[in-house]
């Protein structure tokens, strides 16, 4: 009976119109809604602790500090690419704080592609934007969201967080 209720709820739930429609779980297990960030830009990043792009955590933290009045960076650990995020939530959080001084919000570990893709990333990878749509190719892809919850830019992994492309769009 519970399964039927879930299926019906999913069938009759209106599609998301912005990132503010998503409720998430922090790396500490606390539920929150992205709507709490209304009025600020968001930089949503799929992350991994054992990737060649992992040092971007340091630049993401600098970006979060430098633009804290108008931007919130949120990391989404995912193990979709080469098993590069094998740890549990507590291990990921400790790694990020110890090695890169991360204080920006981290979500619980999720999937960013495939059959078990998190609904937020399904939304982000299909939303129109001036850059590109489609499946995430690797760790540290970045999605810039405007103050109204709309995707305005998407950046591939090699685009550094402090690059002119990102800082100019903020």
From TrEMBL:
Keywords associated with the record: Oxidoreductase, Peroxidase, Signal
Active site per the UniProt annotation: 51
Residues annotated as domain Thioredoxin: 13-170
Domain of life the protein comes from: Bacteria
Pfam families: GSHPx (PF00255)
Gene Ontology molecular function: any one: peroxidase activity
One of the GO biological process terms: response to oxidative stress
InterPro entries reported for this sequence: Glutathione_peroxidase, GPX_AS, Thioredoxin-like_sf, Thioredoxin_domain
Secretion signal span: 1-19
Family classification: Belongs to the glutathione peroxidase family.
Protein name as catalogued: Glutathione peroxidase
Protein species of origin: Mucilaginibacter limnophilus
């Amino acid at each position: 009976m519970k399964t039927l209720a879930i299926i019906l709820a999913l069938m009759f739930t209106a599609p998301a119109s912005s990132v503010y429609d998503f409720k998430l779980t922090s790396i500490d297990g606390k539920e929150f809604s992205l709507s709490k960030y209304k009025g600020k830009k968001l930089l949503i990043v799929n992350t991994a602790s054992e990737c060649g792009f992992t040092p971007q955590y340091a630049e993401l933290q600098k970006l979060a500090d430098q633009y804290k009045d108008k931007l919130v960076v949120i990391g989404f650990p995912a193990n979709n690419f080469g098993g590069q995020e094998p740890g549990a939530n507590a291990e990921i959080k400790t790694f990020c704080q110890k090695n890169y001084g991360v204080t920006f919000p981290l979500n619980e570990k999720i999937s960013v592609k495939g059959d078990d893709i998190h609904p937020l990333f399904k939304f982000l990878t299909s939303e129109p934007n001036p850059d590109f749509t489609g499946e995430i190719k690797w760790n540290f892809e970045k999605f810039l969201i405007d103050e109204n919850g709309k995707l305005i830019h998407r950046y591939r992994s090699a685009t550094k967080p402090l690059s002119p492309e990102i800082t100019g769009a903020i």
